[in-house]
């Protein structure tokens, strides 16, 4: 079994070598690799910083500041992804006046790589979301919203795979149940499917079929519901699934001082993170990869 | 042939050893506060500027005047600001409702918690309307039976809060907060009669535990945001003059 896999990989490599020739580069990158994941959620149209008299949030937030921070991190590590976990829209007059145009344009200028869809992103109806898509240079993922019978059909993928420094990163999206939360006239024929079942399918596809080194879930289902502990949430999702490395959450505006470490269905660690709301914080998760096979005894150290 | 094969295997080994096998060794996670210690990206700032100026110009345009400050905490069971909001919903929504249905709204009920800010003394701007009503909720008219109106009265008596009501309904409670009298447009409430009650979609859907709107005979969605109601209402007046009155009182 092992030998067969080796031969398969060997022949694939030879084929590659035959086409492109073997560059020196593949021999140089034997040192540690680092992938940086930056994330926001529930920014809710907060483009300007909060004013000096805003009590708890005084002088915090602001897209122009976030831009310089993201740029500095990217300069330090080009192998960076910038993700948003939904509810980009609604919360300041910018949305009421421009319908999300400025939010998407600024996210494009900040070079966001990917976003998922929150319930408030339907606030101008599914047509309102669709109308702003030309302003977004980034893509949207949602694996459990079925948009087949809506205007958004083909504009939202279940997942997207990024290749950074030879590391394959699969990111899939999850959205919250819309019935009872959003007016049906807004989301129209969008079908909500069970996040846990879908997440199991997605992590299998990304880990086993696509052979991703990292699997990230970009979720807007909420961190955890204390009064309804059985309700589907990021924490419950982490416990019920396997092969997900990181869940980036949103919806509940949960200000986590540091990521939560949960055990998945086979006892492995999953990180769950959420950075509150309104662009007051930027989340940063760094994944380090070492050359060589994984020595099970050592495992992965997590520093939060 | 043999040599070629050896070379191939060697190459494959070399590539595998230094390129393919990587494993996740360490994860670090943190959050970074966005605050004034960070520089603003000047390109982004310059891009936002015209949008901000346009929004502010519009938000800061003066549309009316408040001779004093109105707060939802001034008053027992009815407040000047709440009365203004409920009466504004009636005044602005009823023509829309009437033109679509030929019927009239009987009265308006909103929620005390839905008044999100004071109206400060001085110029009223569009921004005032955004502060008082930052949410996107809009007006709905519900067709209810008198029996449901009576459930609503029980709710109001128990809540003991100044939930905004329009001037068309009069309610008095006794010293024990028990319902004493209630009329709609100066007439007794009849159990079998149909009433058209305007509220917002949040309350209609059970917000603030106002469960008496369902089930109902009919729902009319006006697609008229409460905030726009306020803006339209302010624009029609040089000066507002809401007062605390007798519409919902306790007789001690």
From TrEMBL, chain A:
Tell me the domain of life.
Answer: Bacteria
Q: Gene3D superfamilies, from UniProt?
A: 3.60.21.10
Q: Which PANTHER family match?
A: 5'-NUCLEOTIDASE, 5'-NUCLEOTIDASE-RELATED
Family membership = Belongs to the 5'-nucleotidase family.
**What are the residue boundaries of the Calcineurin-like phosphoesterase domain, all occurrences included?**
36-254
| Key word Transport present | no
Keywords attached to this Swiss-Prot or TrEMBL record, sorted alphabetically, are: Hydrolase, Nucleotide-binding
Q: Which InterPro entries match?
A: 5'-Nucleotdase_CS, 5_nucleotidase/apyrase, Calcineurin-like_PHP, Metallo-depent_PP-like, TAT_signal_bac_arc
Its protein name is Metallophosphatase
Q: Which PROSITE patterns match?
A: 5_NUCLEOTIDASE_1 (PS00785)
Q: Which residues cross the membrane?
A: none
Automatic annotation (TrEMBL), chain B:
Q: Which InterPro entries match?
A: 5'-Nucleotdase_C (IPR008334), 5'-Nucleotdase_C_sf (IPR036907), 5_nucleotidase/apyrase (IPR006179)
Name residues in a coiled coil. Answer: none
Pfam family name, one = 5_nucleotid_C
The 5'-Nucleotidase C-terminal domain sits at 74-214
Question: What PANTHER family has UniProt attached to this entry?
Answer: 5'-NUCLEOTIDASE, 5'-NUCLEOTIDASE-RELATED
What protein is this chain from? 5'-nucleotidase C-terminal domain-containing protein
Organism from which the protein derives = Winogradskyella alexanderae
